[in-house]
């Protein structure tokens, strides 16, 4: 668009000042300039768009106030008063501004933007004037005039940076709302949001900036919510260039894409409507570390409380679950860790992890968690057990029979599985924290644990003894309670568990007898025969 030359006061036409206001030039003192400007401010404040005669009368004054003397004035009070006048001039002369030069309009709006920095200090004697300036600009949408300028983006970037930098916890709701009105009108009524302008918003969501200025984060969050329909396309374009096309140079925020996706999802999932398919693409990357980063991100999104992403985007959910069988060990490990959040926050999705009858997983080769419970990597098998046990300890309803079955299968070689089952038994069977029905659901645990005593490993036998004394018939109970506990337990055991328990007591009794005999020998006078006998007892004890 071509702009005509800036209109200037006619050479033979004087500038008309409001009644009682003398000429304002560089020849008078700053104090006098301020005094006269205050009267000019009052005049423009009282004018409205219908004041045609006054608008024409003070046109030359409006042009004069945009001169270099005022826009470059070193005095802060002078600049503030001039900015207030200019804001009112845009209001009064709307929709046509008296300033027609491209360069002059840019200078004016950059000047006004710089004055908005004064909003930072709410205790300043001039704060009310700064607030008036902001309120006026927001109400009139004055910055929308800049859409006609070729380099309007420079102005908008400075405006957004300024507002995000000055917002603080001393500002009231009105200040925040005017800032939002000002920025949202630029986003929603313009032709689009450039990457540089988008960066000024998104940078406030990065953890380091978020923790530095929470008010700026809240402002950015509310702005994104308000403009979601308009800005979603710009956000999608940014992530498409970084995630799909690999153009990290498009933005200084490229290295923070996953942090940004997580934040944007928590603000409003609609902001990422077009981004989710891009994440599905990255899940299939040939780079294991890249897949790991995406799995970590999606685990947070799917596992977040109240998240509906899995039901709203089934293809992405299916692709994510496929990472349980990833060739890269860290990816499988991260997938299993996610299962814990899934079980606790989204028990409705647990079926997709465990149940072959799920309509969604019907054609897959096996149940994800079950496969991982047999993973060749011990760390992964361990995490499967811990995941299920922790969920069960929180609420037994969170783990179905199939999940408990995975733990049951691993008791032959997993100490964690045995200890986890013992903890569930103590909580739900011994203490009856969830009622008889839940206790019945895991009543098999007591038999399963005692059956382990039949293993040849001395470590297994010792673990069963420890579990029995700590979880099944806790040694911390008083004698009467302990006997009741033992009585009910013994009466409910299956035949093999009874035999195992009897064998355990028999071995313990034998060991106690051997220890007593050893102590008796130790009390006798030292002799070669006595030493030989003691050594024999020790060998027998160590072999038991």
UniProtKB/TrEMBL annotation:
Note the CDD domains from the entry. Answer: PDS5 (cd19953)
Q: Does the keyword Iron apply?
A: no
Chain coiled-coil ranges: none
Where does this protein reside within or beyond the cell? Nucleus
GO biological process per UniProt? cell division; DNA repair; mitotic sister chromatid cohesion
Task: Kindly indicate whether the keyword ATP-binding belongs to this entry.
Answer: no
Per its UniProt entry, which superkingdom is the organism in? Eukaryota
Q: Which GO terms describe its cellular component?
A: chromatin; nucleus
Keywords assigned by UniProt?
A: Cell cycle, Cell division, Mitosis, Nucleus, Repeat
Name of the protein in question = Uncharacterized protein
